[in-house]
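Check the record.
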Amino acid sequence: MADDAIEIEFDITLEDAVEFSLWDWKKTITYKKRVSVILLLSALIVLLLYYLFSLTHFDPWYMFFYGFCSGVVFLVFYLMVIMPSVTRKTVLKKLSESRNRILLTHHKMRFDVSGVSTQTELSNATVNWDGIEKIIRGESAVYIYLTGMMAWIIPDKAFADEAAFEAFYQKCQAYFEAARAAVSAGGAA
């Protein structure tokens, strides 16, 4: 692979950090468990209401239909509006309470066959590709995970257009996969 390095400069904003935190959290087991518990509790509440209304003079199927429809509407509203809003506010508050000077600043990054170098006014770091955990493309950024809980955020606004952003992601994936293959080949020898 030719050493055609990519150099970019960009600013990470509080909104970028919040988006990453939300995106990453939605991928966690905790989030999935919380959604499962909400679904289970909602189903139990609907069944309890169905039973209670069936003891009265109301037609049970009529009440079950309306109870079920209202439960579905409530769940969709909760999962798509309330939960993301509350989570966003919590993450924003948490990030706003600290300085985050290393994260929320101007970044200069270089990506080449040997690894990733990043420079800010407060830090310099170089990481080889085999030291990177994973690379994931989100809706508006590429996340280069250094550990399971920490990642570099490369926003799409650092590139001229979507094609340049996609080419960057593909190049990083190629470097990453080549490094993983080299480590696997070295371990097999």
Remarks:
- The helical segments are 14-26, 29-54, 60-97, 162-188.
- The beta strands are 6-11, 106-112, 115-119, 124-128, 134-137, 141-145, 151-155.
- The first strand starts at residue 6 and ends at 11.
- The two ends are 22 Å apart (CA to CA).
